[in-house]
Model the fold of this input.
Amino acid sequence: MPKKELMEVVANEVKACRKCELWKTRSNAVPGEGSLDATTLFIGEAPGYWEDVKGRPFVGAAGKLLDTLLADANLSRSTVYITNVVKCRPPKNRVPSPVEVKTCTPYLNRQIKTIQPEIIVTLGRHATSYVLSEAGVKEVVGITKLRGEVYSVKLFGLSVSVLPTFHPAAVLHNPKYEDPLKHDFQLLKSLIEKPRQGHSKSK
Done:
């Protein structure tokens, strides 16, 4: 089945999903958006207020900052894919529960397998913890210690470079994270521009 059809199936399932309690308080589920042929996949934690209103990822203040960071790395929303670990907004933007993560991540896993990215940028500790744990990294410590490094892993049969960094929303609450976040996006830029060898995609 073509990528477009596979992703449409996932998106339709997400929009109709009632597998956890979040459907009761959401306005819109947020499957994700961007290029299905993207080399780089961005994964955040969960939708916020404006994402819930519009049904699109990263469209609030954190999204505007992400757009600026993408431009600095010579990227745009049309050339990457952006999604979240959890597809519905937790009430009052609370942290998703372990049950919600476990219930929702099969959608994310299918998105990763469909897009087959070379690089995954995990935004924040929850996305980082999930992706690295799925890739078999046993000691997943805090995002402050993990960020700024590139982890070469196997994920669902893909050879992937995982770049953990702060969630843009963290910068809005604590400006001290701005410079490290900008640094990580410049690292992403150099990673994209570097000739990649030995990357294999599952079929």
User: Anything to note?
Assistant: The CA atoms of residues 159 and 199 lie 6 Å apart. The longest helix spans residues 98-115. Residues 197-203 have pLDDT under 50 and may be disordered. The chain has eight helices and six strands.
